[in-house]
Predict the 3D structure of the following.
Amino acid sequence: MLNFAMFGAGRIANVHGQTLSEHPDANLKYVVDPFPDAAMAVAKKFQAKVVDADVVFADSAIDAVLICSPTDTHSGLIEKAALAGKAIFCEKPVDLDIDRARHVADIIKETGVLCFLGFNRRFDPTFNALYQDKQAGRIGNLEQLVITSRDPSPPPVSYIKVSGGLFRDMMIHDLDMARWMLGEEPVEVHATGSCLVDPAIAEAGDIDSAMVTLKTASGKLCHINNSRRAAYGYDQRIELLGEKGMLQAANHKENEVRYLGSEGDISEKPLHFFLERYMPAYRRELQSFVDSVTEGNKPDVSIDDGVKALELADACYQSLKSGQTVYL
Amino acid sequence: MLNFAMFGAGRIANVHGQTLSEHPDANLKYVVDPFPDAAMAVAKKFQAKVVDADVVFADSAIDAVLICSPTDTHSGLIEKAALAGKAIFCEKPVDLDIDRARHVADIIKETGVLCFLGFNRRFDPTFNALYQDKQAGRIGNLEQLVITSRDPSPPPVSYIKVSGGLFRDMMIHDLDMARWMLGEEPVEVHATGSCLVDPAIAEAGDIDSAMVTLKTASGKLCHINNSRRAAYGYDQRIELLGEKGMLQAANHKENEVRYLGSEGDISEKPLHFFLERYMPAYRRELQSFVDSVTEGNKPDVSIDDGVKALELADACYQSLKSGQTVYL
Amino acid sequence: MLNFAMFGAGRIANVHGQTLSEHPDANLKYVVDPFPDAAMAVAKKFQAKVVDADVVFADSAIDAVLICSPTDTHSGLIEKAALAGKAIFCEKPVDLDIDRARHVADIIKETGVLCFLGFNRRFDPTFNALYQDKQAGRIGNLEQLVITSRDPSPPPVSYIKVSGGLFRDMMIHDLDMARWMLGEEPVEVHATGSCLVDPAIAEAGDIDSAMVTLKTASGKLCHINNSRRAAYGYDQRIELLGEKGMLQAANHKENEVRYLGSEGDISEKPLHFFLERYMPAYRRELQSFVDSVTEGNKPDVSIDDGVKALELADACYQSLKSGQTVYL
Amino acid sequence: MLNFAMFGAGRIANVHGQTLSEHPDANLKYVVDPFPDAAMAVAKKFQAKVVDADVVFADSAIDAVLICSPTDTHSGLIEKAALAGKAIFCEKPVDLDIDRARHVADIIKETGVLCFLGFNRRFDPTFNALYQDKQAGRIGNLEQLVITSRDPSPPPVSYIKVSGGLFRDMMIHDLDMARWMLGEEPVEVHATGSCLVDPAIAEAGDIDSAMVTLKTASGKLCHINNSRRAAYGYDQRIELLGEKGMLQAANHKENEVRYLGSEGDISEKPLHFFLERYMPAYRRELQSFVDSVTEGNKPDVSIDDGVKALELADACYQSLKSGQTVYL
């Protein structure tokens, strides 16, 4: 049985609290959050105790920390947990600042502490099966990758202002997926974007619609498109073209009911958003983390994966501003 | 918190043990089974205690019994539990003998004890959404119903011999579904069948392929087809035709990966069998039972539903033998 | 180049006129119809001449007659054409009276004239590919067959009164499809039906909704369901279950556009009715007939196929009336 | 009845010969081609006469010329036909040289002769319905466009060498589709590509895999991906994202047969190549041309559309070479 302390008490903390409560080998002991009411609510729901961070790091019974507090606290908490020798599960991103992200990645290397980065989509049953099929050679050599990733509606502009922007907050998941699927690092990045959904996002200095092209050293091509709005729900698709064929990952639906009437042939829309679509992925990423801690294996997603995705996001902003291809 | 005792320690007991362990308001206290090893294994897995039946009925702390022991014990256990005043969750069928089934249904009526029958498919997310759509008037008046229900492969012939036969063991689920979807009782039953999958099934006196037609007083028509074999997995589909259109419930798949290559356009097969397909339904039927016990409501599926489905199964055998339509 | 005379000048005559005009080896020389205006319109459209029937049978330049006049004229025209030595393409049914149908089938046998019956669905690209796949052993031994056949809306009651009724007019196509797909003759027939679409159809002595079950000597089972109404268009589907898997023929759509919005995931409905769905089949059945005439082969669909489908339709009416299984 | 002369006697000449032979208001009078055997074969097949170009331009009975000879003859023939006052149907591209293309576009403007450019995909039933749905406001304001266009296998390298390269020969269709769907001109072009299919293509100085991004003045984004190889057939898809939803155009299949077995759930692949997929489009584009000639309307696709697509293809090569965004 692994004892966990969780940093954070927001929406994603409730997801992780749920997966921890269902896991037979995990026990949520502590919840840490500066807002006492939120901390108490989460702690009560999952039968844990609210404590200060110091208690967590001093308690030798704590095996692992799960960091899902605001982004600007991630790297600091990773550092403290690493120095306290706790296994670390951290939500993406490591940090919005690449230098700070690299700094804590170095600390992880020095301390040898296990640090797992929460790129949950790698654990989605469909995306994972897609990856396994590719690895098994079903399409031969991969040539083209197309990633479609659209949110049902934009977050509040107040959130966008502190989020690091579309590339660091939203597309970073797709950049990680691209690295994972391509199996080699992109060496060329081109990004373009527009503000088409809400002018307030442009006023906040960001875009809400983006198209990015990546190219690897061996010539593999990747296209990613993002929008902060999809009237039909959370649109999460991936397509791989290889020498022997194509693999596609389609959206998930709530049920398999189909209606045919004078209006047409109508099926369910994609699941509404990430909580609905990725709940199985959250369960499976926790399992992966628990396995790594228990068996002493390397994490399936490392802090380096977090750093590299952030480097690509930064390159996207550079390309967006200059209009030019960025060579890495 | 409701305290449960579970009768049975086989495959389906493991399913109910799992759903009980996940439910926040349910506690599995006792496991009862004549085979000590099996009982111990289930009890250990779900942190319960192995006891004799007498202990269960004498323990006032037990709120409910979950009966998933062999079919020939169902009606006896229902009777004892009813007399002991325990809420009852019983797997289908009530009994293979219609008189005995009616007898215990009478006892339930007299004692007023809550008795829920485990026709799990009513709680499948797709079938339930189909039903809700129909109830909401999406296709207007229902005219035709087509139920396809095929197992991936036949059970051992030893099981078939004690199962009550295809109509009482397998199609009984579809007969319940037909009653539920039609919203009125069938008054005409015609059945035909063959042994096409395995000659040993014919030697055991049963069929493995069947087609049944039902008709209600208002003229609604229903077709059910069953096979003990489907090379592509568990085939569970329903189609409703109404004046305004059609509703279809398609099979569920493990993931949404699609491959296109020289061999064709290939998607995942349906989920393999009932444990895979109906796990969400098992969770939801337990929730329904817990809600009924807690809130004092009538059960969503009653012992009368069990009796009526058995009457239809008996009529199917009568029609199969005579070649004639049976009028109810 | 084959010279044709066409009997009839209605809707289906326009279909055959069109396919004849497109065929490089066919020439429509004459049109015969008791209504001069209709005859003239069709003749003008396809550059033919209006004549009396006698002219057709006396003209040695006429190689073939295409009979698409009203049903009650079919057997008489077949007889005359056979005696005149013309190759015959006749729309279904041969006759509504089984004795008369058998009589002209005998004449065809005696004269040795080529007589092709227009069961057009055998030539539909999807149904034909389904049949070829079955013949090639893709599902191994066929066990169950399910045919769904629903018209978008009922014909005028005046037509129904002279049509021979649902089984002889509408389901006869499905009965032919069943015989073709099963590859052996049904020996048991059970039929039930209702009037759910329009009470005027019941007043005219017919049903508008039907379910039929067929069984062959080897135990293959077949279900056919018909409705005179499908709000979503012409519903023409077939499903084959065999030991190695299932083959399904889905409906055809006008285009492959799909819309996803807040209302759902919406595709095109099936093509509206038989003219839209079966236009490729009409072209291909003409090709089959021309090939038989040119190469002296047996027809792909013979007058015996027409007689046997009619026998099954008659058995359906017998079962509908008696409620009993009819043994052939 | 319009009299046509056709320049060219290759594969696409056979397509146009076929559509002309089926059209009730078109008559193919002459075929012109420097290879007498090829010319004779086409002329014989469609009952036309082989003549020299001079005969065509001197014959006042000729209403229209259909140019499907090699690309390097297009602009010269357009010029001569324009000066002879013949209506012109020309296969894409106008010319591989942008100056020459602009020159003949000017001549068309000066002479006022009707000149229709054969961007056949605009007439595909699915793409056309997609466009109509967008125009009707089904997705509101268009924000993103994704075009997937992959050939089943590359043409001979000898052809690639004279083709103008992937952007001018293959993607030019997609660039036209982009302009048509976007409804405004791209002002930014970024292209990248690789040679992944066949090294001989790289040796010939071209690429076989490409990803292009376009942006319009109002910020609409467009992605096009091309490959010279798709093991599963001709992949022709379009996706439109708008404020109210998404519209997708899927591939066409030969039939609607679906097989489910132990290997999976298998449907037909997309139609193999352009002759199979776009035959209905070829018929409809001829109809559009005939309508324009007959009714004196502007052509649905003009020579200016040909010039503008070529400008975009040239910009793609410029971006591919420089790695930079090209601003138009």
The two ends of chain D are 43 Å apart (CA to CA). Chain D has a mean pLDDT of 97. The domain at 2-113 of chain D is CATH 3.40.50.720 (Rossmann fold). Chain D has two domains: 2-113, 122-277+309-327.
